[in-house]
Design goal:
- Two copies of one chain form a homodimer.
- Chain A is of the alpha/beta class.
- Chain A is 39% helix and 18% strand.
- A seven-stranded parallel sheet of chain A has the order 3-2-4-1-5-6-7, with helices on both faces.
- In chain A, helix 3 links the parallel strand 2 and strand 3.
- In chain A, helix 1 runs parallel beside helix 4.
- The radius of gyration of chain A is 17 Å and the shape is globular.
- The interface between A and B is large, with 36 and 37 residues.
Chain lengths: 222, 222
C-alpha cells in the first residue's frame, strides 16, 4: 500500500482553485463582472473603488467585498455611499482566498449587482497565488512606491490584466522614472493595460471608467 | 500510545524562535547590534539604510542582509557603497525567517561589523510573526500610504520598537493627519519611539542617527 503524501502548498492551492471555479460559475450565472483589486498597503485600492462608485453608480449596480487584516474602516466608507458591502477580516492572514469570498458572496444580493469589486489585503506577494473567482485582476501601483517595484515583486505585475498607476499628482515631487516603470511592466506582461491616474485629482480616471464600463457591458452580453 | 499532533503553524513559529535565539547568541557574542527593518514595498527601507550608511560609516562598521522576493537591485546599491552585504531571495516567500538569516550570517564578516541591518521583504503582515535574532525591530511607514495604516495593519505597529515615518517632504501634498497617526500608533504601542523623517531631504534623520549610535555603543558596553 502506497503512502499518501500531502503536499500542503499544492493541495491548498488546488483546493482554492476548485472553490474559485465554483465562485466564478456562480458569478457568471448572474453576469456579475468581478474584479480582484490587489496592491501594497496605501496604494489607493479603496480610493479607486470609491471614485469608481461615485462615477458609475448611476449607470450600473455595484457591490464590494472588503478584505483586511483588521478593522472595517474601508467597508464603513463604502457603506456610507449606499453600496452593498461585506467586510472580511482575515485575522492576520495576508491574502483573501476563494473560501472567504464564497462566504462573502452568500451575504451579497448578487442578482442586483452588475460590477463586484473584491478589495484584497494590502500585500504585493501572497494574494497573487490565490484566485478568487474573478473575471479580471487589477493591481494598483503608486508612484511614491518607486519605479523599481515591478523588478522586486514581479509575479503580481506579470499576472495582472490591468495595472493602475496611482498618485500621478505626486510625480513632480518624486524621482519616478515613468519610462523605466512601463518598460519593466511590459517586459513582464506584454498584454497588460496600464492606466496612469490620480484618485486625488481625477486625472486619467475616465479611461479606467471606460474600460470597466465596456467590460461590464461585455459580460452582460450587450 | 497517544497520537502525535503536528500543529504546523505553532511548530514553524517555535522552530523559528529557537533558530532566532541561536542567531541572537551569535550576534551578542560579537556585540553586533542588529536591526530588523520592516515596511510596505516602497516605504523607504533601502533609502533609510543607505542614508544611514553614508552618515555613520566613518563612525562604525556596518553590514547589511537584504531580503527580497526577487532581484538584487537593493544589494547592488549597498555593495556600491563598499559595505558587506548578502542578498536573500525568498523565491516568492513573503517574509524572512531565522533560517535564512543564519545562512546569511555565515557569509558575513561578523567580527568586523558593529551594526547589522536586516532589510525584510516588503510586507506589513507576515514578517512580524518571524523573529530573526535582532536587537530591535524598526518599521517604516510613509506618509503617502495614509494615516490609517496602523488601524489596518496593527500587529507590526504594536510589536515594533521604533516607527520611522518617512517621506515627510510629501506631507504638504497629501491629506495625512499626523496627530491621528500618532494617536493610533501610541494607542497600540505606548513605548514606541517615532521618528518623522525625509530620506530625500534628510529632515529628521539626525535624531534617528543619534538613537542608533547610542544603541550600538550600548551593545558594545561603552
Amino acid at each position: 500500500m502506497s503512502v499518501k503524501v500531502i503536499k500542503v502548498g499544492e493541495d491548498i492551492l488546488s483546493a482554492n482553485e476548485d472553490k474559485a471555479g465554483a465562485n466564478k460559475a456562480r458569478l457568471d450565472k448572474g453576469a456579475v463582472f468581478t474584479v480582484n483589486i490587489m496592491a501594497s498597503p496605501g496604494a489607493g485600492k479603496t480610493s479607486l473603488i470609491m471614485n469608481t462608485i461615485n462615477n458609475l453608480k448611476d449607470k450600473m449596480r455595484i457591490g464590494v467585498i472588503e478584505g483586511d487584516v483588521a478593522s472595517s474602516v474601508d467597508a464603513d466608507k463604502i457603506n456610507a455611499l449606499g453600496i452593498p458591502v461585506i467586510q472580511i477580516n482575515t485575522a492576520g492572514g495576508c491574502h483573501l482566498d476563494a473560501n472567504m469570498v464564497e462566504y462573502a458572496l452568500n451575504g451579497l444580493p448578487l442578482d442586483a449587482i452588475d460590477l463586484l469589486f473584491i478589495e484584497n489585503v494590502g500585500n504585493l506577494i501572497c494574494p497573487n497565488a490565490f484566485v478568487l473567482g474573478e473575471d479580471r485582476r487589477v493591481m494598483i501601483a503608486s508612484t511614491p512606491e518607486g519605479d523599481d517595484k515591478p523588478l522586486k515583486y514581479p509575479a503580481m505585475f506579470a499576472d495582472s490584466d490591468v495595472v493602475v498607476l496611482n498618485k500621478t499628482d505626486l510625480t513632480p515631487h518624486l524621482d519616478f522614472d515613468d519610462a523605466a516603470f512601463r518598460q519593466t511592466v511590459t517586459g513582464l506582461n506584454p498584454d497588460v493595460v496600464i492606466f496612469p491616474v490620480s484618485c486625488k485629482t481625477g486625472a486619467g480616471l475616465d479611461d479606467w471608467y471606460a474600460w470597466l464600463t465596456a467590460a461590464v457591458r461585455g459580460k452582460k452580453g450587450g
